[in-house]
Amino acid sequence: MTNPEKNHLWRPYTQMKTAAAPLEAVRTDGARIVLADGRELVDGIASWWTAAHGYNHPHIRAAVAAQLAAMPHVMFGGLTHAPAERLAARLAALLPGDLDHVFFSDSGSVAVEVALKMALQLWLNRGVSGRTRFLAFRGGYHGDTLGAMSVCDPEEGMHRRFGAALPTQVFCDLPTSAERVAALEACLAHHENTLAAVIVEPLVQGAGGMRMHPPEVLAEVARLAQSYGLPLIADEIFTGFGRTGTLFACEQAGIVPDILCLSKALTGGTMALAATVATGAVFETFLSDDPAAALMHGPTFMANPLACAAANASLDLFESEPRLAQARAIGARLAAGLAPLRGRPGIADVRVLGAIGAVQWSTVPDLAEVKRRFLERGVWVRPFGDIVYLTPALTIAEPDLDRLVDAVVTVVGDVTRP
Ligand SMILES: Cc1ncc(COP(=O)(O)O)c(C=O)c1O
Q1: Is 38 in contact with 254 (CB distance < 8 Å)?
Q2: N6-(pyridoxal phosphate)lysine: which positions carry it (predicted)?
Q3: Has 264 been labeled as part of a binding site?
Q4: Of 239, 246, 245, whose CA–CA distance to 264 is shortest?
Q5: How many domains does the chain have?
Q6: Is the same domain home to 277 and 332?
Q7: What are phi and psi of 248, to 5 degrees?
């Protein structure tokens, strides 16, 4: 059978001339992906870090089915609905501090765009002009739309070719040493009057290479942003909902950002939904008798009721099932299982945080070959750059997790050259 998509689909991050044909998935269940040819793969990455409860969780499916029967979608301008009201209230209760004001959108990149726009308009609403730039961190990734691209790592990031077309931002290293703290402070002092906000991925820079930093570093970022009067945007799109071992990564540093972005696992990996959440102080700068002071944003499908129903059901599961303990147990198993790779020639680093395990090569092998070998072993693991990583569903069964870890240890061991 010819594959019709070969002619019509333009695939993500894919060189369409040379890429191998994608595998066709027909079914998912728990931590498994079933392919059209009958093969069953253990998923090591939970569909780009979304499927926190595994695939097809019956509670989420039932919630979405009930919502589908009642009201799949309704515009959010001038109308509201219970699934969104309930979800916003629950997020506000779960998030640290007074992150109480929830703006829904439909993807992580758009949640970041909204956060950047909120920060820009916050200054305009205060009557301050000239604050048009953002301080972001090297190694960071915040999405694929233009504003989000502009705050990704400008040199090593995947969007580096677009530099000339993007707004120019200010980049610093995360303050992981005394010198870097001083450098960040100097940078803030130098650019103080042109900056609108600081944006950071708390505890892990995900797509930039699973680079982890301790909570103290995040606390230092928050302290410095605050001391310069700058709003802090925490991009928890990857880290939110248990991935780092706490519900939100910011909790580990005891910080409350001014604006926080969520997506990915928000709906337990079932539907597209994102949220940009602001503190009371940020929200209040938008309250005015002047209509122009309102946040001028409104995606057509914002607060989609099906997605909100899925997210509410996902939060039920975080309440009723031991997800955070499961994340920490996965972390312990990843740390023990991946340890044999540590210190091997050709391996630069092995690191684990929460339910994230990453192995970094110093000598990168042929990644197409690495992917082929993972498939042979019946696992879905997607190395990128100099990294191979595991971010499985938090509900993954121990034998499946062991199979993923064994595959990584064996395949990486076999393909790595000193
Ligand atoms: C930290 C972070 N921010 C933003 C995004 C963009 O999200 P989306 O792909 O839903 O646009 C991602 C996606 O990987 C991410 O990891």
Answers
A1: no
A2: 264
A3: yes
A4: 239
A5: 2
A6: no
A7: -125, 145
| pLDDT the model gives residue 1 | 43
Give yes or no for a contact between 268 and 46, defined as CB atoms under 8 angstroms apart: no
Given the residues 43, 55, 106, 141, the one annotated as active site: 141
264 catalytic per annotation: yes
Instruction: Report yes or no: 155 and 138 within 8 Å, Cβ to Cβ.
Output: yes
Ligand 1: residue of 109, 149, 384 to mutate (most ligand atoms within 8 A of CB) is 109
Q: pLDDT tens digits, residue range 193-204?
A: 999 999 999 999
Active site residue 235: yes
Residue where one domain finishes, among candidates 320, 351, 367: 320
Residue 98 placed within a domain: yes
Query: Per the confidence metrics, is the pTM higher than 0.85?
Result: yes
Catalytic residue among 43, 106, 235, 400: 235
Place of tokens 């000193």: 418
Core vs surface per residue 307-320: b (16+ CB within 10 A) or e:
bbbbbbbbbebbee
Q: Are strands 259-262 and 232-235 parallel, antiparallel or unpaired?
A: parallel
Counting as low any pLDDT under 50, the low residues of the chain are: 1-2
